[in-house]
Amino acid sequence: MSTSFQCTAYGKWILVGEHAVIRGYPSLVFPIPSRTLELKYTPGEAALVLDLHGNHGQELQLLVWGVLEKALQLKNLNRQQLTGTLHLDSSLPVGAGMGASAALCVALTRWLGHLGHVQQSEYFEFARTLEDIFHGESSGIDIAVALSGEGLRFVRNGERKQITPKWKPRWYISYSGQRGVTVDAVNKVKDLLEKNPQLGQQIDLRMSRAVELAEKALSMDESAGQGLLVEAIEMAGGCFEQWSLNEGAPTTHLQWLKSQGAIAVKPTGSGGGGYVLSLWQKEPSAEVLQHLIPC
Fold first, then answer.
1. How far apart (Å, rounded) are the C-alpha atoms in residues 29 and 35?
2. Are 13 and 268 in contact (CB under 8 A)?
3. CA–CA separation, 160 and 158 (whole Å)
């Protein structure tokens, strides 16, 4: 009989590199320490049941079974082979661009690994395949950070190098007021690439340059690096504008953050809504902090 098990998968936010990462360009991604999915497993003889907790636990009700069905298909297992109780406690909103689906896929992969169905060397690719359910074509960036719990320089089908900033930027994410749909945003960028390949490549190269600048900025001390980080974030934000992924509520929210003293702002994730990133020279006011999540 299997033993009890528990693990934590972190949510994520992307500093720079969105969309271009799908086409093999680098991206910088970090975990959100305050937003997690906690999985605990209690063995038992009866058929597997779910016990959902947390601010966003109930949102996982339908998702868990869908991911498990895919996992069972991949490993030629049937549901009768899964018994006991899965306790899931989530503070990650689903469909908000914080990597909730990746955290779920990683947590379930680790649990299946504990049960002996998935080898540890398979974890990344297995979880990435599960995440295809949600994104159609997962670059694997959300999976990588959910597995590692560390800041990463990520390249699709390539390197995953740990990034540890030399200083602590005052950066936060906040909800734009409009839900972002990843698949719609990805398709919008693909459409632009098909209609105007030259412009599409120029934007990808610009985003890649933003990644270089941000990585350099984080390798310096604050006095030298802050200005470069502002440039990188603004450059990446310009890419979202060229992709037309700032329209509506996100633009209003970005403008509000700037009016409150943010020195650089951009969408984070797929854009078109969801969350945005803001960088601050000094700590925001208590009133503004109520709307921000520390990175």
1. 15
2. yes
3. 7
